[in-house]
Amino acid sequence: MAIVTPPRPEALAPEQPLNKPVRFIRRPTGYTPGIWGWMTTVDHKKIGIMYSVTAFFFFLIGGIEALLLRIQLGGPDQTFLRADTYNQVFTMHGTTMIFLVIMPLSAGLANYLLPIMIGARDVAFPRLNALGYWVFLAGGLFMYSSFFLGGAPNGGWFGYVPLTRNLPGHNVDYWVFGLQILGIASLTGAVNLIVTVINMRAPGMSLMRMPIFVWMSLVAQFLLLFAIPVITVALFLLSFDRLFSTNFFNVAAGSDPLLWQHLFWLFGHPEVYILILPAMGIVSEVLPVFSRKPLFGYQVMVFSGIAIGFMGWGVWAHHMFATGLGPVAVSAFSASTMFIAVPTGVKIFNWISTLWKGKLTFPTPMLFAIGFVAMFTIGGLSGVTHGVVPADTQQTDTYYIVAHFHYVLFGGSMFGLFAGAYYWYPKFAGKLLNERLGKIHFWLMFIGFNMTFGPFHILGLQGMPRRIYTYPEGRGWDVWNLVSTIGSFVIALSILTFCINVLKTRKTQQDVGEDPWDARTLEWTIPSPPPEYNFKEIPLVTSRDELWHRKYTEDDDGRSVRRAVTLEQPEMPGTEVEPSTDAHDGPDHAEGDDGHTDPAHDDEEHEPHIHMPSPSYWPLLTALGLPILSYGMIYKTWAVAILGGVWIFGSIYSWALEPATAPEDLPDHGSDESLEAVHA
Amino acid sequence: MRRNRRLAAFSASLFLFLAACAGNAPQDTLEPKGPVARQIDHLINPVFIVAGVVFVLVEGLVLLAVIKFRARPDSPEPEQIHGNTRLEVGWTLAPALILLAVAVPTIATIFDLSKKPENAVNVTVIGHQFWWEYRYEDLGVVTANELRMPVGRPVELTLNSDDVIHSYWIPPLGGKTDVVPGRNNTMHLEAETPGEYLGQCTEFCGASHANMRAKAIAMAPADFDAWVAGQKAAAPAPAAGTMAEEGALLFAQKGCGGCHTVQGVSEGKIGPNLTHLATRTTFAGSIFNNNDQNLRTWLRDPQAAKPGNKMIIPGGPLAPDEITKLIAYLDTLR
């Protein structure tokens, strides 16, 4: 814990070494520009942007993989991809979209927005936050390096044993180690965001005043916290089987392959809610703003999100209805699967009620949010039909299930994430994305999406299994597969439109101000893009939808009436918030020893002297050790593995000795020399 | 307005399109051809109807809200409604009751289908990468890729795997069950009319998962008994001086018997039993119709025909005349 007490003169000498750890490289300062500024940043907003941009690149790669698959399946007996190539591509498509796209996109948005939405200046553990990003990047690049090193993983995204135990080559090893690396990123992120939300809320931001996106992200982070260890256990066992010929999944030695499936889906089903809950939160933010009404049934929305989080742990075996669990177990999981639809349905009705009697406008974020509600409903309904177990034995592992989870994860999560991208882009960049291109994007994606995945329902019910690289003529699948392939290119066109939109918008000059959407929550009270410290003064929260209540009051009919003068931060006498000594500042934040953090001393026109945690190389360096260790393990080159281990240990050790805020980053102390001079 | 109408038109066409059911799909799950599949179909049809009603209701409400409550120049600021407890209770209980109505018959059907049928033909199905082995232990018959069954009599399948997890599925006759190594899962199927029913492996099992198909051939009981009798007899030895006899010699020389059983000739266990290969309509995981031309394609380069399969030809590729001789021999295995 790095709360550095203001040094008293007599204590200076013994404390000096703590502030000056042994350094191999000079620590970057808060003013480090350019690429190094990004690589060493601990600012949650920069990290959020890096998460999102990286995940978007992986989204493009995963999308290209999807197009390759669709080309191959566009007609019967195609020879565009060879069998093994197809298997690598579909494995990487699934793995990428789940672990390298939707999870980090949600993580990126949460990283950027959660601290701001709760009125904090940063996350609880800024360097840990940076570590999460770099580990994610390292894991993603590590897994993709397999394409150049003998072939990508080819055992499917859920890697059933004994197939993944037996597959030759190193393909599956990349998957096993890559996912373990990514798990570290998710875990550190989860711990960080949970602590942030629980401990760093602004005064007055009670749990039931938190924006719903914060709530849903919080639930998702708790799910991650408990789910990642489960898959880590499974992956650990599998890696030992593959590297050291242990017998955890060796059927000949008496192992039951269903052990893997239980472990995997005990992670894998909560994972589904990890992927969808943040998107549900986004939609719950966007719909009220463009309906000019509060979210209908806020408490119920919070509670149903938590209920989904809990119930999500009791449905995993519905992925295993065909494995022969026996009628009693199957019936129990059938019932739990159906009843998880109740809180989900409640959410859908609350969203519709939010629209009801509103004053709806339809900018791009609203279109995507409504698209989410419409498409997710379809995914939810097909989900219920899977709970009808005898029918599921006809549907599972066919394209019907592929349709279902694409309606949930693409029609759901991705539509929600795009709603969030268009909605918060002005906050991130200070510019609004082009509305015309945004609408073209939405409609192309909406049409392309339904063209691609709608036919999957029919194909599945017509008996087309998933994960087949080819199919013969005469099965009746030709037409719908062709339609689907054409649809996939319409989606590609829509994504291209989005890219053009972002590139075009970057060139425009705009001043969108703080609150371009007339929104409701705290992030819209600060400049766009926000300053490094987010809030000049920590806000005092007096109600849910804080910003809305500062702008509007209600007349006798309960209708919104704009206040004559927008309320500034309401201030109670004697409670002026002193930012850097506020208890809500995180434990990892160093505190200043001079009076410069007191806003009363600041000239309003100038940047206030609010010092943030200093940048650091160690998160990046720590993360780099993980792929080194993994390459060493996969190729059983123990020297490399040991190097990786020492690298990680050394980086963590140096990190531990590094204070959260470098002395030279303290205002008025430009260098060690001046600090020493002062203290001498 | 234009936008809304487009949305409406699109959703309507989407719904029709989902409800559509194209013909000529031999693996169609909604065209049951036996009592097991029909029981599943009867269970799911009302569920599809309920889901369809909920779909129309929800999407209709979304559309209605979008059309009715869109901002007009004269729209007043909306009333700030924060919620309504009675509504919340209502739309919690209503779906719960609907789901209860679905859950009860579902669970009843689960238990009903798990009952062991009476008077069943017992068959052990063994999954291999990438083909099916059928062992009629009671009848003393071993065959591959095609499940022969009498009509009007249930077939009880005991499923096991030789390598990885597969899943056995003949959609017109019933749902799938995974074929898990080290476990003996069971399922039963029944066909009502004689005919061929197609299916395939539905658990990803490696490179040629797509090429692991299955076929059930239902026959009149008398035909089935005749088939059993034929399968139990050893295949006749090829007549002396024929090309088939040279093929038989080659079969021995090339070591084919190391993997394939031909009753009375060899006892290999790795590949399919070939004793009565010529009586089968398909081969190689049912991806090829059984004719000379396809056998030639197969024997020329099995790896090209079916990537990742375990068939190797000791001593390198076969010469064209060797293939001709082998085919002549295989054609005698009736």
In short:
The complex is a heterodimer of chains A (680) and B (334). Chain A has 680 residues and is mostly helical.
Structure keywords:
heterodimer, A: 680 residues, Cytochrome C Oxidase, Chain A, 2 domains, 2 strands, globular, disordered N terminus, disordered C terminus, B: 334 residues, alpha+beta, Immunoglobulin-like, 3 domains, 5-stranded mixed sheet, 8 helices, elongated
Describe this structure in words.
The complex is a heterodimer of chains A (680) and B (334). Chain A has 680 residues and is mainly alpha-helical. Chain A has helices at residues 12-19, 34-39, 44-73, 83-117, 126-145, 163-166, 171-199, 212-244, 258-291, 298-311, 327-339, 341-355, 364-387, 389-395, 399-429, 435-461, 478-507, 546-551, 618-634, 638-657, 672-679; strands at residues 552-554, 560-562. Chain A has a two-stranded antiparallel ribbon. Chain A is globular. Chain B has helices at 2-19, 35-68, 85-113, 221-232, 243-253, 292-300, 302-305, 320-330; strands at 121-128, 131-136, 141-144, 146-150, 155-161, 166-168, 177-179, 185-189, 195-200, 213-219, 261-262, 266-267, 282-283, 288-289. By secondary structure, chain B is an alpha+beta fold. In chain B, a hairpin with a 4-residue loop joins strand 2 and strand 3. In chain B, the strands form 5 sheets. In chain B, strands 3-2-1-5-8 form a 5-stranded mixed β-sheet. Chain B has a 3-stranded mixed β-sheet with strand order 4-10-9. Chain B folds into 3 domains: 2-68 and 87-113, no CATH class; 121-232, Immunoglobulin-like (Sandwich), CATH 2.60.40.420; 243-330, Cupredoxins -  blue copper proteins (Immunoglobulin-like, Sandwich), CATH 2.60.40.420. The chains are: A mainly alpha (680), B alpha+beta (334). Chains A and B meet through helix 4, helix 10, helix 11, helix 12 and helix 13 of A and helix 1, helix 2, helix 3 and strand 9 of B.
